[in-house]
Write a structure and sequence with these properties.
Elements (H helix, E strand, L loop, with lengths): L1 E7 L7 H9 L4 E6 L8 H9 L5 E4 L2 H4 L3 H13 L3 E4 L7 H4 L9
Parallel strand pairs: 1-2, 1-3, 3-4
């Protein structure tokens, strides 16, 4: 099962873009919250982590939504991995100029 997590940091921000992306990524259940990432606890994220089971896949729109800091993100991903839960982000990265360029046409002699 794909499980989504969405978070915005202020009441002025909207969750719609993230929810739509998570739905498009096939999430059957989405946990979301409006809460600053610097708060000591993210209740909806904790609920998502408790809900996830082995074989599930946790999906986020962007990785910075899942963790409050790099250390926190690593801890969350390790917790998911330890429970047999995969983690992916639903937003496709923009292609870099290197990826957009044509294949290498240099020939070796």
């Amino acid at each position: 099962m794909r499980i989504g997590y969405a978070r915005v940091s202020t009441e002025d921000q909207k969750l719609d873009l993230q929810r739509d992306a998570l739905s498009a990524a096939g999430c059957e259940k989405i946990f979301d919250e409006k809460i600053c990432g610097s708060t000591p606890r993210l209740p909806a994220r904790d609920e998502m982590l408790d809900y996830a089971r082995a074989g599930d896949v946790a999906v986020v729109w962007k990785l910075d939504r899942l963790g409050r800091s790099l250390r926190d993100l690593v801890d969350v991903v390790l917790r998911l991995k330890g429970c047999g839960v995969g983690a992916i982000r639903s937003r496709r990265p923009r292609r870099s100029r290197l990826q957009q360029s044509s294949p290498n046409t240099c020939s070796s002699k």
